[in-house]
Amino acid sequence: MSGRREELAANLERVEERIARACEAAGRPREDVRLVVVTKFFPRSDLDLLADLGVTDIGENREQEAAAKLAEGGTPEGVRTHFIGQLQSKKAGAVARWADVVQSVDRAKLVGALTRGAEAAGRELTVLIQVDLDAEPDGHRGGAVPGDVPALADEIAGSPLRLAGLMAVAPLGEDPDPAFARLAELSARLRVDHPDADWISAGMSGDLESAVRHGATHLRVGTAILGDRTSHR
Ligand SMILES: *Cc1c(COP(=O)(O)O)cnc(C)c1O
Fold first, then answer.
1. Mind spelling out the 3-state secondary structure of 139-159?
2. Residue to mutate (ligand 1; options 41, 46, 62, 84; most atoms within 8 A of CB)
3. Quick count: other Cβ atoms within 10 Å of Cβ 5?
């Protein structure tokens, strides 16, 4: 156990150094960027170690796995939970029971489902719109096509959910820079009508520097902190 704590601490320190360097290179204050540690596939004991090491935000991508982990003793003290996976509307009510932030809202149907879930649970939910950044977006990998973002944003703004901004994953096998530049542009456009929706969730273990360069406010980092997931599937 103590070996795992030291491993996580060392990995966190390395990622923290990367973020600090990226912020400095971009001329941005470190406080503008929040680290969300993605704990999918890893056990509850890692969540507790991370919370103890000062991690404030964790991300999970599967409702049942997350709910099971958080049922063991509740959400660790002082930790905000983010749902970052593809969401079926029939699972929205379950996600609303434990998530503080749902980063992957990509269609209007989820707005009603999450609203009902949050009301039933008596909780407030912050949401991000996930955008498909493929050069020829089809929404197949999850994410609204850019043209659908304004209507979806208005729908969320008219609901009890709090619209905080945008989330995206860089397209596979492509330079992340132009994709994250498109995301920054979409964010600027969104903020014309929704000035408080200023979060940009982008950047993972492999491309966090590019995301920081293009204005990311939230990074979702798994592998670089927890290690290889393939042995935990
Ligand atoms: C798994 C996952 C991450 C973390 O990816 P790593 O490459 O392990 O850092 C980030 N975002 C989403 C949406 C994910 O599903």
1. CCCCCECHHHHHHHHHHHHCC
2. 84
3. 16
CA 103/CA 93 separation, integer angstroms: 15
**Which tens digits make up the pLDDT trace of 210-221?**
999 999 999 999
3-state SS, one letter per residue, for the chain: CHHHHHHHHHHHHHHHHHHHHHHHHHCCCHHHCEEEEECCCCCHHHHHHHHHCCCCEEEECCHHHHHHHHHCCCCCCCCEEEECCCCCHHHHHHHHHHCCEEEEECCHHHHHHHHHHHHHHCCCCEEEEEECCCCCCCCCCCCECHHHHHHHHHHHHCCCCEEEEEECCCCCCCCHHHHHHHHHHHHHHHHHHCCCCCEEECCCCCCHHHHHHCCCCEEEECHHHHCCCHHHC
CA 101 to the chain's CA centroid: 8
Q: How far apart are CA 208 and CA 227, in angstroms?
A: 16
Q: Is 86 in the pocket of ligand 1 (CB under 6 A)?
A: no
- Give tens-digit pLDDT for 76-122: 999 999 999 999 999 999 999 999 999 999 999 999 999 999 999 99
Q: Distance from the CA of 221 to the center of ligand 1, in angstroms? A: 6
Rounded to a whole number, what is the distance in angstroms from the first to the last CA of the chain? Answer: 20
Structure tokens at 134: 């493929």
